[in-house]
Hints:
The chain is α/β, with parallel strands linked by helices and 323 residues long. The protein is built from eight helices and 14 strands.
Amino acid sequence: MKRTTEKNLMVFSGRAHPVLAVEVADLLGTQLVPTSAYDFANSEIYVRYEESVRGCDAFVIQSHTAPINQWLMEHLIMVDALKRASAKRITVVMPFWGYSRQDKKHRGREPISARLVADLFKTAGADRVISVDLHADQLQGYFDGPVDHLMALPLLADYIKEKYGNQPLAVVSPDAGRIKVAERWSARLGGAPLAFIHKSRRIDRPNETVANRVVGDVKGRICVLTDDIIDTGGTIVKAADALMAEGASGVIIAATHAILSEPAVDRLKNSPAVEVVITNTLPVPSEKQFDTLTTLSIAPMLARAIREVFEDGSVTSMFDGHA
């Protein structure tokens, strides 16, 4: 008895950011698999798929937004349900990798929680991971399997180039560690000069910096201040203030993941930034929207990456050879 099996792409979504998942499915020309998901009285999570997933190529989309532990656990349970229902291959699509900032030990007796999350997904049954703008490139090595690292840089940079490209620009990294990313921004923006913010971070106080000094010439230029994450907004707003103090003609903040924990919205609204450009890797509720905030959709990039993986194509080709 012989049979040539056909590949069957199926897209699944958790409850954290369904709008993004629906957009991705639409771009792929399919629909999300009907799923029952709810919480028991004691807050345990239950998930069941309403149709057969046997032999499918499964892509499970979930953004690790607040409350992060709930949505991370739901993501793991979804993967486990697929494994036990005989899905052929399971790809975890997490636009934002939860706990990604805990990627190394700063002091003794600390965890490396980003590695723990990778191990949890492997144990649950994941074969592959797709994520956007990892906090550190080495996270690709934490998961024992293929990791497709997508970059929002082309999306963000092309928007800024189209809107502000006729003015003198400078690309500013919020710290020395992201200079290589800033160099790619510079190339995308036609060779705009580089600068960076020299800062000191308190290791005993999360999300807090204690000094800012601009290294590089930003006078008379619109500064594109880039980062991967905006959480409480303290670091990025201090950097914007420092740039204006050095004579910058304006500041544009560009970031991939808008966590926007309190008091980020107030800080950004009152900052000197003329525009804050983000992507929708994480949901931004209506109460956190403000006039200078622009949100670009990451869905076309996710959809193309899913298609490349499904068709055994090249994800790296989407980013001019950068992985």
